[in-house]
């Protein structure tokens, strides 16, 4: 049997929540819907500013909130987990051919391999997904030696298959889309300022004539 012992830190929860968020289909779909909705709000915001309406700043604020919502959701989930009074307590894990055995501050639990869906590795974390909303997080510092860590990884791969990508494509694509939309928004603002200045100059010339 392979054993691991330790207690969670806040960084463990933030890292595991971020990793899990971008591989859950429903959350990824919601995050991507924020992009076009935010773009429409930015457009309405610029129109409102052009017409000196209070709706302009309101739409821009809502767009900013929508675009940062995925990151805020990750931090919120991690904060809620950290508020659990038992989260920082010492835990002991044992992995063998039968599955995973967990001994924690509120009791013991045994999970067979059939009850686990997949696993991921993100730098200093192993994340085992039980359901779409339940994870087992194993920081690498819980293992007594690198050799134990390698044996754990081999066991996970043998029982659950190859590990999932640590940085999902959805994470990269969403951030690339956000950068493009922000760049386009700044371009629109610049063009609006240039056009407004041109109309002002034309109007002034007409008055002088």
In words, what does this structure look like?
- The chain has helices at 10-21, 25-50, 55-82, 146-160, 169-208, and strands at 2-6, 91-96, 99-104, 107-112, 118-122, 125-131, 134-139.
- The strands form two sheets. The chain has a four-stranded antiparallel beta sheet, covered by helices on one side.
- The chain is α+β, with helices and mostly antiparallel strands and 209 residues long.
- The protein has five helices and seven strands, in the order E-H-H-H-E-E-E-E-E-E-H-H.
- The model has no long low-confidence stretch (mean pLDDT 76).
- Strand 2 and strand 3 (99-104) form a beta hairpin.
Largest sheet: 4 strands, antiparallel
Structural class: alpha+beta
Enumerate the strands of the largest sheet in spatial order, edge to edge or round the barrel: 1-2-3-4
Whole-number mean pLDDT: 76
Q: Which band does the percent of strand residues land in?
A: 15-25%
Number of strands: 7
Characterize the overall form.
Answer: elongated
Radius of gyration: 25 Å
What are the secondary-structure elements, in order, as H or E?
A: EHHHEEEEEEHH
* Helix run count: 5
Q: Percent of residues in helical segments?
A: 55-70%
Uncertain runs are none
């Amino acid at each position: 049997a392979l054993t691991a012992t330790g207690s969670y830190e806040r960084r463990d929860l933030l890292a595991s929540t971020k990793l899990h968020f971008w591989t859950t289909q429903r959350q990824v779909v919601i995050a991507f819907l924020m992009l076009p909705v935010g773009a429409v709000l930015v457009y309405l915001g610029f129109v409102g500013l052009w017409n000196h309406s209070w709706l302009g700043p309101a739409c821009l604020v809502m767009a900013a909130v929508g675009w940062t919502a995925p990151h805020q959701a990750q931090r919120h989930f991690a904060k809620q987990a950290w508020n659990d009074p038992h989260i920082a307590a010492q835990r002991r894990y044992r992995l063998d051919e039968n599955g995973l055995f967990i001994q924690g501050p509120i009791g013991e639990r045994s999970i067979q391999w059939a009850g686990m869906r997949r696993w991921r590795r993100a730098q200093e974390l192993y994340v085992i997904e039980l359901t779409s909303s339940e994870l087992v997080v194993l920081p690498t510092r819980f293992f007594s030696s690198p050799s134990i860590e390698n044996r754990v990884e081999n066991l996970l791969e043998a029982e659950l298959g190859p590990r999932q990508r640590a940085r999902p494509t959805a994470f990269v694509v969403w951030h690339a889309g956000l950068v493009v939309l922000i760049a386009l928004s700044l371009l629109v603002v610049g063009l609006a300022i240039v056009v407004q200045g041109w109309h002002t100059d034309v109007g002034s010339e007409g008055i002088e004539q």
